[in-house]
Amino acid sequence: MHATIAQNVRMPTLGYGTWRLAGDSAKQGVMHALELGCRHIDTAQLYGNEVEVGAAIRDTTVPREDVFLTTKVWIDAVKTDQVVASVEESLSRLATPYVDLLLIHWPVPTVPVEKTLGELRSVQERGLTRHIGVSNFTASLLREAARHAPIAANQVEYHAKLGQQAVLEAAREVGAAVTAYCPLAQGNLVSDPVLVDIGRQHHKTAAQVAIRWLAQQPGVAAIPKSSRRPRIASNLDVFDFELTEEDLSRIAALQKNMRTCDPPIAPRWDPQSRG
User: Whole-prediction pTM value?
Assistant: First the structure.
């Protein structure tokens, strides 16, 4: 199993994202991913699919201890001092006594991150999560968070058309991994001519090239999403080739600061994606 290691946390390099998957699609998607060998599953309170994700993990033959499960605390819980209670509710929905990684879903400017991380540490001390981290934190916010707790990962949108150099540098400084969500820019990369051409040379698809580009970077994990079993299998099949220096240079030239899913609550990112 290929793994990304940070803060003594061994996280599978490729995972399965469940954003925008609901009901049976969410359950079947997770089951397909696990059956195909994926051992890293990502969900969140906001997604409304923790019940289905938990049911899928329960109904497969994969032991719970072999699954790296991540969920995220939504901002409402942070604002209302209900972090611990919300995590307990998440665990009830997931039908598991713990998650492997618990993240603050988005930074909340009106609540000091020290306070929220203190609550996550309490959750961790009670054994309800093995590790804690953040999501959608800029480089400066990540450094601030790391002053108050060991941060296992910062989950951000990251793909071949959105550089995150400053976030990556900050993550290396504080010993955190970077987990890339929307690694295919919500489908925008699957027909990119440069990625298609590179893929042709390696007998791979453009999507596989985009995922491999992330997986080939030290300290980076990726969580592509699909509801279709063949596509899930394809997304996981990226460890039998390696991108060359020329490939990497061509991909680097694609960066356009393309953000595909920032909501109004997103922090103010640097125009050049430097955090």
Answer: 0.96
CA-CA distance, 241 to 3, in Å (whole number)?
17
How far, in Å, CA of 209 to CA of 243, rounded?
A: 8
Q: Which domains, ranges and CATH numbers included, belong to the chain?
A: 3-252 (3.20.20.100)
Retrieve residue 59's tokens: 């109904």
Residue with tokens 């997304």: 235
Q: What value does the mean pLDDT of the chain take? A: 96
Strands of the chain (E only): list them: 3-6, 9-12, 16-17, 40-42, 68-73, 99-104, 129-135, 153-157, 177-181, 220-222
Confidence of residue 51 (pLDDT cuts 50, 70, 90): very high
Q: Check: CB of residue 159 under 8 Å from CB of residue 189.
A: yes
Whole-Å CA distances, 100 to 67, 115, 201: 8, 21, 38
Q: How large is the average pLDDT for residues 22-33?
A: 98
47 tagged catalytic: yes
Q: Are strands 153-157 and 40-42 parallel, antiparallel or unpaired?
A: unpaired
pLDDT at position 274 is 46
Q: Which of 47, 98, 158, 181 is catalytic?
A: 47
* Interatomic CA distance for residues 275 and 152, integer angstroms: 18
Classify the C-alpha dihedral 148-97-107-29 as positive or negative: positive
